[in-house]
Design brief:
Helix content: 25-40%
Radius of gyration: 21 Å
Number of strands: 7
Strand order of the largest sheet: 3-2-1-4-5-7-6
Strand content: 5-15%
Largest sheet: 7 strands, mixed
């Protein structure tokens, strides 16, 4: 097998649960694998090394540009696609793949984006309050400066799971009357005054949940997850494998419910009611429950601490329509409902 170049295009972060992802995929030599979240290319490189042909997708044009060297050295086995993984089936078809053997989704923000202050994803380094993966559309600054306070409370409370969402949104609304938020450090400072570092049992930065909420909202991340699961169901060949790595409870709940519903073969009945008919299962679970990172991996890479892996094998049953609400995807104000 042709050796891939190790200088340019090398991943700048450690892929989370890589050994477990490869184990869930099994033998992928000669297989067509979709890496729905290319990022810094860590998973993709491992798939190429294992002999797979890879379709790597990313919304971020910076990630695609950084992957050109890896694609150039892949002897045609890596196709880079700038786009959304919610359309992965369409991307595969455009590249001549009517079906694929595996889909891997590593959800959430990439280490590359977090580490670049100018992208505005992190409160740890001051930068413009942006957070747009595609670098277009509404920014986080647009949301905190213009969204009605009531809607902002719901976004922070639901998408960030911040218990003090009302207080945080109130503080934001009061401050933006004086001057708009433009920098990550500015917003983080306001949130920190409300939440406080001394909150009992709190081990994360006070602004973590608010920043998570804004990032998820700006990029429609949970809607994208739902649509990507449906796209994977359509794209996978019988026997193909779906492997998903999640990093917080909202996205993990969606994946868990999707796989539980799609692998169900019987509906619950009772002594008084017969079992209802259920559609043929489109997936078979590879393992019950989620796979967590080892203590050694968490010690070596703290960003892995909240990761969970879920995997399933595609059956030959036809793909079905999907209902985001049944999967637990929360409903918050759409931009068109509050934008001027």
């Amino acid at each position: 097998m042709m050796a891939l170049p190790r200088d340019e295009g090398a991943p700048r972060h450690v892929p989370v649960l890589l050994s477990e992802v490869l184990a869930a995929l099994g033998d992928i030599d000669g297989c067509a694998v979709v890496d729905g979240t290319f990022g810094a290319g860590g998973y993709t490189r491992a798939f190429l090394d294992a002999g797979a042909d890879v379709i790597a997708i990313d919304r971020d044009p910076n990630a695609i540009a950084a992957g050109r060297a890896l694609a150039a050295g892949s002897a045609g086995r890596l196709s880079l696609v700038e786009g959304r993984f919610s359309e992965l089936d369409a991307h595969a078809q455009t590249l001549g793949r009517a079906g694929v053997d595996a889909v891997v989704l590593d959800l959430g923000v990439s280490s590359m984006q977090l580490d670049e202050a100018e992208r505005g994803f992190s409160f740890r380094s001051d930068g413009p309050l942006d957070m747009r993966m595609e670098q277009k559309g509404l920014s986080a600054a647009d949301v905190v400066n213009r969204m009605p306070q009531r809607d902002l409370t719901r976004v922070i409370g639901i998408l960030g799971e911040e218990k003090r969402a009302s207080s945080v949104s109130r503080a934001i609304a009061e401050r933006r009357k004086e001057r708009p938020f433009e920098r990550t450090s500015d917003l983080a400072a306001v949130v920190e005054k409300v939440v406080g570092r001394s909150f009992k049992g709190k081990q994360i930065h006070p602004a973590t949940r608010t920043f998570q909420a804004l990032r998820i909202y700006v990029n429609r991340e949970l809607d994208e997850v739902v649509e990507a699961l449906a796209a994977a169901e359509r794209a996978l060949l019988p026997g193909g494998r779906l492997v998903v790595v999640t990093f917080h409870s909202l996205e993990d709940r969606i994946v868990k419910r999707f796989l539980a519903e799609r692998s169900r073969t019987r509906a619950g009945g009772s002594r008084h009611l017969p079992e209802a008919e259920v559609p043929p299962a489109t997936f078979e679970l590879i393992a019950r429950g989620a796979v967590d990172p080892s203590e050694a991996e968490v010690a070596a890479n703290p960003r892995a601490r909240s990761a969970k892996l879920r995997a399933a094998r595609r059956t030959d049953a036809p793909a079905r329509e999907i209902d985001p609400r049944e999967l637990g995807a929360p409903r918050v104000a759409e931009p068109g409902q509050w934008e001027e």
